[in-house]
Each structure stands twice: as structure tokens, then as C-alpha cells.
Amino acid sequence: MTIAACLLALSIAPLAAIILCSIVRNPRACEAFNLIAAAIAFAAALPLPFLIGGRELTFWDDYVLLDRTGAWVILCTGTVYFLASIYAIGYMRLLREESRLYVFYALFAGFGLTTLIGPLMNSIGIYWIAIELTTLVSTFLVAFEHVAESMEAAWKYIMVVSAGISLALLGTILFYWGGSFVLGPTYKMTWAVLASAAPQINPILMTLAFLLVLVGYGTKVGLAPMHTWLPDAHSEAPAPVSAMLSGALLNTAMVGIVRFLAITRRTSIGELPQLVLVIFGTVSLLIGALFIVRQQGIKRLMAYSSVEHMGVVALGFGFGGPLGIAGALYHMLNHSLNKSLMFFGAGNVMRAYGTKDIDRIQGVGRHFATQGSLWLAGAIAITGAPPFGLFLSEFTIMRAGLTPTFSWAVYVMAVLLIVIFIGFMNHFRVMYYQCEATDAPVAARSSAWCTVPMWLALAPLLVLGLWWPGGIWNYLTAAAQTLSPGAP
Amino acid sequence: MLIQNLGPLASSLFSLLAIVSLLLAFVMLGSRWLKNYLFAFAAESWAIAALSAAVGFYGGYPELYLIAILTLLFRGLLLPYLIWRIIRRLSVDREIHVILQPSTSLVVGAFFVMFALAISYRVAAAFHLELTVAVLALTVLLSMKMIGFLMLAVRHEAISQILGLLVLENGIFLGSQILVPGMPLLIEMVILFDLLIVVACFGALVGYLLTHVGSTSSLDLRRLVG
Amino acid sequence: MRDILLQIAQVLTVLILAPLLQGIILQFEERVQRAQGPGIFQPYRDLWKLFHKQVAVPETATWLFWVTPIVAFTCVLTVPILIPVLTDFPLPLSDMGDILGGGLILTLASFMIILAGLDTSSAYSGIGSSRAVMVAILAEPTLILVFVGITLLAKAMLPFVVNHLLVADWAAYMSPAHLFLVAAFFILLLVETDRMPIHSSTHIEVYMIEEGRILEYSGPLLALLKWASAMKQFILYTIFCNVLILPWGLSIRGTALGALGAAIGLLIKFTLVACVVVFVETAQSRLRFYRYQEPLAASFLLAVLAIVGTQLS
Asked: Which of A126, A442, C11, C175 is a good FRET partner for A326, with 20 to 30 A between their CA atoms?
């Protein structure tokens, strides 16, 4: 299969699912359409890192770009989309909203489509529009359960994120303006053109534009202190949507920051952009740690864990160098898998116990043998313990940070990771091993549709933690080369 | 580069339109009645459309005439109409200011303008453009942005928050017309339509808020904490 | 020699015509509200009556009580020397103070009257003083900013330079900076001369601000204070018209005929502005005290925008 065919399949399959779901409103049929589209998208995304080789390809008159970073992120997104689609079949049947289910699957396929094509956009303006579209589509997914809390979460989400990415639009325009001094008033707004003009753009404008873009897209990624929408949106959305939000959307927005960072590295600003990124990462870790320790809701716990992990990714990209960037990219994949696993487990537990409070969920291990152990394994993984993949990626990032300028961040990161481990595991201890005060009513076991994705998510996580193939390492290092030109 | 070659008449015309837009943003900041916000926003969009046409005329960008007409129709007429329909569905006419009085907001906005002027002067000085309209464009751009954020922060009515977001976008659009008039047409048109979709989504969400929460004021949206 | 005469003529113009302006404004107000009105020369009759009355001094008053009317009157007599009243060109002694200096001298007069209100330990005077200070706190920074804006507009501190600039350069007259300054100063004019929506000259005790400060005065002292406040109004109108909005009609060469013409032109200009002021006043009602910040915040904002406008052209 050629790359062009893969990309076409990637885009057309979810689009077809949207159209079919809108026309054929049968819930079972919509489930099937979405699942098939997700499977096709995953099958098309999987070979992309292998096929791309050493090149950066552009298609369709320079509007579509495929480079190593983009291929990697599309792989993460495709995986999460596939797993979440499988899980959604089982989960959404429990919601008993059969009449509106076609809306859900149409929006879900739309969400998948926009997050898949985000990293492909070559023009920085159209990339912004793709991010804006993801916001709009996912708002209605967050608001799907028509309850007051969901509405509040959706309103906060769209307000904060729209305001945030308008800052990113301002940064984009300032970048374009800077480029226009070098390239004339009209030119193609692609990443490569901007990068080639970058050395001649004034550093002051570059700094201002990058900071705006960082804060803007950082709102979408969930870096603190712009993360305020994240716990609400991720906790009030249905579980498959939460998995997509955490696993797919945050990565897509991060690609923008990383590409702009690569552009600024070609000018003579010095270390300021990276320093700011490291500071945002550290603050995200701090906020994540503090809120995880005192958390009371199961899905908000997972959401703050997302904030924390995005902080770790930001730290990785901020540290720079082949180790840092490779570690960050690897962390993206591990986090997508792991967070999906956690949200799937949380969704199952929520439906079974009928509550979101950690205190009222007890004896998970006794009632649910397989799912419980999968979920517990996921919890151990997400706090960064070996032998899972997250341990390797966090360790790589920490190694990358041990330079004279950033070593303080590594120490803070280590301490906070320990704090998060203790806090997170404490909540799980309460849920699994605390003696039950009353016999809480437990619903029937959930279907296989909800268990299989958890297996499918855990297995690669274990594999990636135990086995670090040279091919992946070479790929990631090559991606790091393109993202930090001239770095040692 | 357009900015460097502007004649004095064109320069003062751009200045006038930009400052009128900024003034209308302040009118929005200081008003209590939702209809006044809306009319000020519509007038501001018309001023920006006029600015687009002026830039197209003096800079020789005929495609900007199309953008000007589309701005007039969409941002100037269609968006206010959609928002007016949303307001009609609500039972609120005016906003009781709990967080910051309008007069204090005006003073805070004035400080934002001074801050924006300082930044723009520094940025323009780096390009030796201090004496051109670039400083004004950047100032109005940054201050309308900050005023939009101020409106988002201190207003609790949903409509005011939507209008704050639209003021943000207006500011960016105004700045981009003066600073980068040559930006590819496709981007500008898609951003315009995107705004339309955003407001349509807001309309749907406000409807949901009314039905399920009972009010559109964010003071009532306090269920999710921690 | 002729210049010195013109200088004296300026001061005399302000002295004599100030009550006339007050009378015109009050008469217009009454006529707009379909009442008969006392006639435009009523303030003269009031002053005449007050000069022939006896002075009643409270027992708790000190030397400040006697000194204040004299200081206030002197201050407002000094300011016409500094601003273009009749002539286009600076007269001797007019560089004694610039725009900012003129503003400061006017503030000194207000300050003395406020102190006099506190001096007599009367309840209503005290309230009037504290409220007047509150309004001043809100209005003075704006006034300073407006003066700064005027200075930046003409790049000089003398009002005469501003006058020349606005007469000569149509673009400067129409520039946004100038228009915003006019708007900001108009609001300040309304506030400082106690027109609605501030209207502190009421005789209802609960709302008293201006009247409260001078409640304890009587006889010639009261006459001096009332005349001083009328002259302050005249001076503010002069600054508004001759410096900002209608800078034409001043005598260019300083002949007697020119001076007379300038005086008549002054009255015509003031009548125009008075019409607008009366229109604005009748169109709105009095604001609550805690909402005084709103028009003043708008004025502050306009002054800031004007300053920003001067930086950008």
C-alpha cells in the first residue's frame, strides 16, 4: 500500500462513517459503521511509520504533510480511536440512549476524523482550523449525556479552549507577519517555508509569537495553568470519549507546539522557548500531583493524571536533544495506550457501582477478577512503575534533562512522580483492598466489548516496556533530528 | 511592504477605523444591556469591514474587497442576528455585574491599552516601523484581545462571554488586515466560516444550558469542583 | 503697553462676564423646562444683594474662614492671565504658568474652599467637603491626563501653541486624539461645573456637595465665593472653547476693536456650548453618588485613548 492510499483511507473511512450514521439511524448499524471505519483507520495508520522511511512527503499541492512526527502521532491516534470504538459499543449500550446513539457515533467518527487529519495539515492556518474543529465536535460529545454537570463541563470546555486557541491564532499571524518581512507579503504558510525563513526573522517577534502559540495550544494540550477545562471535560464525557480526548486530542495539539518549537530553534533566541516549556511542564506536574493526592472522583483522578503526563511530555520536548524528544514521543504512545486502559476501567467501574466517588467504590478485585486486575496493572503502569512502557519513556526523559540548565527540573520531576505514585496507589488501595463497610449493590458484569479493549491496550504496554527494539529507537531519533536541527 | 509605503491620508484613515473599533470594544465593556453589547459588536464589525476594503484599495489587493463584503455580511449582519435570536430566547435583558463594575472595567481596559502600546512599540522598534500605522495596528490588536479576555473573565452571562470571544476574534482579524493583508485568501475565508460554525454551536449549547441547567449564567455552573 | 492693557482687559472680561454666563445657562435651563426663568442678569442682582448684607460668622470659625474667599477669588483672577481669552498670542506674564499650572491654581481654589467647609465644624459643611474631595479624587487624575494629552498633541505646554496648531492644521483638528480629548474634557466640564449627572449644587441637604461646603458663609464672603465659582466655570469654558473645540475668533493683532470682537465672539461660543450643556443636562437624571465613577471612568478612558492616539501618528 502506498502512503497516499493509506492517507486517503484514513480520511475517507471516518467521513463515510459520519455520513452513513447520519442517514441510517439504526443504533446497531451505526456501531458497526464506526467500528469498521476505526478498523480501517487503524490499519491505514499502522504501516505509516514503516513506509515513510527517511523522507518528508507532501501531497495535494503542499496542503498535506507527512513527516515522522506526524506519522507517529497518527499511529497513536488511530490506536486509541480503534480501541475506543470497540469499547464504545459495549459502554454506550449501558447508557440506554438508543434513539440518540446515531448522533453519538456520527460525532465520534467526526472526532476521529479531525484528530487524525490534524497532524497532516501542512499550512499552519489550516492546522489551527483543524484544532478548532476538534474542539467543536468534542464539545457536543462531552455534552452527550444531557445532565447539568455535562453541560457545565461542555460550556467550560468550549469557552476556555476557544479563548486559548485564539491566542494561538494570534501567534500564528505574528509568525506569518515575521515571515512576510523575509518572503514578501504573500507566501505559502507551510511549516517548511516558515522554517527556512526563520533565521532571518527578528528574535523579539519570534519570542512573542512562540509564547502566544505555546499558551494557546498549551490550553488545548492541558498544560497548567491553562488546564482548568480538562478535569471537567474528561470526567463528564462518556468513557470512550474521555479516552479519545486524553489519548488522541492532547497529542494532536502537542504536535503544533513541537513544530513551532523546531522553527524557533533555527533563530538565535537561545534557550527561552525551551525554558518556558520546561516551566509549564513542571507546573503541570505539580498541579497534577497536588490534585491527584486529594482527589475524590475516579474520572477526575484520571484527568489530572493526563495533566501530569502532558507535563512530562512537555518536559521531554523542553529538554530537547535526541533523548528528550525521542522519550517524549515514546511517552505519547505509551500514555495513549495506558490512559485508554484507565478510562475503560473507570467507565466499567462507574457503570457497575453507579457512582463516581472513590470512597463508595469498594472491593473491585473481589467482584471483577479479570477487569480488576487489568485495571490495577494499568494503574501501576500509569504511575511510571516498571515493567511497563511509561517507565522507560519517563526514565529517558529524565536522563535527557540532566544538563546543567535543566537538572533542577529533573529533581522536581522525580519527587513529584513519587508523590503521584503514592497518591494514585492510595486511591486504588481504597478501591481494591479496603474492607467493605456495607455490601454495595454491584451491577452485572459488563460485556466482552468492554473487556477486550483493556487487554488490547495492556498487552502492547507490557511489550513496549520490556522490549526496546532498535527500529523504534532509530525512528524516534531520526524524528528528533528533524525537530531540533543543529542540536548535539 | 504595505505598512512602509502608506501615504498620510491612508494612514490616518486606518488609524481612525482602528481606534473606532477599539472605542466600540470599550462601549461593549462598559454597558449593562445585552442589546447594547450586540449593537456595539455589529458596529465594530462594520468598521473592520470598512478597514478591509480600505486596505484592499490602498494596497492593491482586490481579494480583500471580497473579504470586506463577506465580513460585513457574516460578522456584521448574520452573527449579530444569530446572537439576537439567542438573546430573545433568554429571559435576561441586562447583566448585573457582580465581579467588576463597568467603570472599573473601563479603567482596567485603559491600563491594558497602555500595556499593549508599550509592547507594540518595542516590537515595531525592532523592525524600524515606529512611525507607521503598524504600532497602532499591534496596539489595537493586543488591547482588543485583552479586553476580550477581560470580558470573558468578569462577565457571567453566557451571551457576554460569547461576545467577549467574538471581540477576541475581531481584534485578531483587524490586526491581520493591516499587518498581513497578503495572507492566503483561503485561510481568511475559512476562519470567517469557522466563526459562523462556532456561533451556531454556541447557540445549540445555550439551548442545552437553558433546558438542563435552568440558566445561562456561569454563577449557576458551580457543580464541578476539585 | 498695549499688551498690559490687553492683559488687564482679559481679567476684567472674565470678572464681568462670568455671572452673565451663569445667568445664561440657568435661564436656558428654565426655558427648556417651560418655566419663565429669572432673566439672564439675575446673578448680578444676587451679587449686589449679597454685598449689601451682613456677615454672620460662626463661633467655631478660625482665620481660615476669612482667608478662603479671598484666596479663592484671587486664584481664579490669576488664571485668565495664562490662557487665551481675548488674544491669539501670549501676553506678558502669560508664561507664568502653562496648562498644568493653570489647572493647579484652580485646584488650589477648590482645596481652600474644602478646608473652609471643614473649618466650621458644621455637619453639612463637613459632608459637603468629604463628598467634594471624593469627586475630586475621581476627576483630578482625568483632568491631568487630559492636559497631558493636550500637551502631547501640540508638543508644547502652552495653550497658545495648541490654539495655533488647531487653527492651522485641519488634520490635527480632525485627528482621533483631538476628538477624544474634546469628549473627555466635555465630561469633565459637566462634572466640574456641577451640571447633571453630577449636579451637586442642590439645596436638598442629603445631596449637597457644592452648596454644602459654603453653607456657613453669608454676605460679601458668600458673594466672593459665588463669583469665584462662576469665574471658574467661565475659565473652564474658555479652555474648552478657545483651546480645544472652537479656537477661532480670537484677536490676532490685539487692537481694541479686535478685543471687543473677541469678547463678543466669546459670548457667542459660550452660548453654543451652553446650549449643548443644557441639552445634555435635561436629557438625563441625577446619578447616585456611587455611580459618579462611571462618567469619570469613561472620561479617563477617552483621555488614555487620546494619549495613545497622539503616539501613533
From this structure: A126
